[in-house]
Design brief:
Layout: E1 3-7, E2 10-11, E3 14-15, H1 17-29, E4 31-37, H2 43-51, E5 57-61, H3 65-68, H4 72-85, E6 89-93, H5 96-109, E7 113-121, E8 128-133, E9 138-143, E10 150-153, E11 168-171, E12 204-208, H6 218-228, E13 231-234, H7 236-240, E14 261-265, H8 271-274, E15 282-287, H9 294-297, E16 300-303, H10 306-321
Parallel strand pairs: 1-4, 1-6, 4-5, 5-11, 6-10, 7-10, 12-13, 12-14, 14-15, 15-16
Antiparallel strand pairs: 2-3, 7-8, 8-9
Helix pairs in contact: 4-5, 6-10
The structure holds flavin-adenine dinucleotide.
Length: about 325
């Protein structure tokens, strides 16, 4: 079986969950090989974590360029590794950065590119990627027909499945292209940590809409999210009203999420909101209007006032956990 390169997302010296999902999916297509860039002294620990999810090889490259410049150093490294290793596919997480890296990489390799896959399958003629498009109204299956398939996969497309593999580390010295220094990072400001998972990667998302009634109304949403270990989302109506930060907006013009569980509280279910959450595995809606369109989409619905339902649910979850 050929190698499947997986660009490993890492932060603060740890492998991130979307990378474990990619490694799990890569096993369906061939032998996963992790590409670990700019991890410094943490590379060995990240490689070991990749091995615990099936990576037989870790291509490790380190250089200040990975931190000092935007995306291009990653493209240089992946291009070089791909040309030497000759993989059967290259997988990248569908983040904004990941999609830019994948697009540039595909161009350099003369390959076809598929973005935002929600599933992958092996096929005799190469990987088959499933996408959910047009506000999830259509499911499309596609295959790259030219070059090495470069595919970006949305977080939560698969559950990480551990498997013990001894991971061989191969150090790579990257020759950076003149384009590398085109866009330099001039400053970084750390976001205030909320202690909650990242919205696009969270297994559970609890979102509030206009029905929450104000910024202070998000307290019940946050309390439930914290009881569930979930991320907090918001509809555009709530964000535009200034009740919750824009970074939390879910939908067509916000973030696309596909968690295991999406709980929408006080959200009507407009098409633009659905576009960002319709591929969630289980959808629960809490709305006091039985005619709200969100109920057409929900797996479970509670007709009721969110200020009664959410605190009760939070209390029961906390009690259940003991
Ligand atoms: P509403 O539609 O006003 O719904 C509020 C709901 O709360 C109602 O169903 C009501 O019954 C319920 N409710 C009220 N009080 C309570 C209570 N106490 N308990 C329980 N339920 C209660 N929207 C997005 O969300 N994301 C996007 O990315 C996005 N992009 C857009 C892009 C474009 C180009 C356009 C035109 C629109 C976009 N919108 C987006 C806006 C979208 O059309 C809707 O206006 C928006 O989603 C509505 O938000 P909402 O459901 O919170 O509010």
């Amino acid at each position: 079986m050929g190698e499947v390169l997986v660009l490993v997302d890492h932060a603060d010296g740890r492998i991130r969950k979307p990378a474990l999902e990619l490694l799990t999916l890569a096993r369906r297509l061939g032998t996963p090989a992790a590409v670990i860039l700019g991890a410094g002294d943490d590379a060995a620990a990240i490689a070991a974590a990749a091995g615990d999810h099936g990576a037989a090889t870790a291509y490790v490259a380190d250089a200040p360029e990975f931190a000092d410049y935007l995306v291009v150093p990653h493209v240089d490294a992946l291009t070089q590794i791909a040309r030497t290793a000759g993989p059967t596919a290259i997988l990248v997480t569908s983040s904004q950065e990941g999609k830019e890296i994948a697009a540039r990489l595909a161009l350099r390799l003369g390959s076809g590119l598929i973005t935002d896959a929600v599933d992958l399958e092996a096929d005799d003629s190469g990987p088959l990627a499933t996408q959910s498009v047009f506000a999830s109204s259509y499911t499309v299956t596609s295959r790259v027909t030219q070059g090495t398939p470069v595919i970006t996969v949305k977080p939560n497309a698969a559950s990480p499945e551990p498997t013990s593999t001894s991971c061989r580390i191969e150090h790579v010295t990257v020759e950076f292209s003149p384009a590398t220094t085109g866009t330099k990072v001039v400053s970084r400001t750390a976001r205030t940590a909320s202690g909650r998972p990242e919205l696009t990667e969270a297994a559970i998302v609890v979102s509030g809409g206009r029905g929450v009634g104000g910024a202070e109304g998000f307290k019940v949403v946050e309390d439930l999210a914290d009881a569930l270990g979930a991320a907090v989302g918001a509809s555009r109506a709530a964000v535009d009203a200034g009740w919750y930060p824009h970074a939390h907006q879910v939908g067509q013009t916000g973030k696309q999420v596909a968690p295991q569980l999406y709980l929408a509280a006080g959200i009507s279910g407009a098409i633009q909101h659905r576009a960002g959450m319709q591929t969630s595995k289980v959808i629960v809606a809490v709305n006091k209007d039985p005619e709200a369109p969100i109920f057409d989409l929900a797996d479970y619905g509670v007709i009721g006032d969110l200020f009664t339902v959410l605190p009760e649910l939070t209390e029961r979850i906390i009690a259940h956990r003991g």
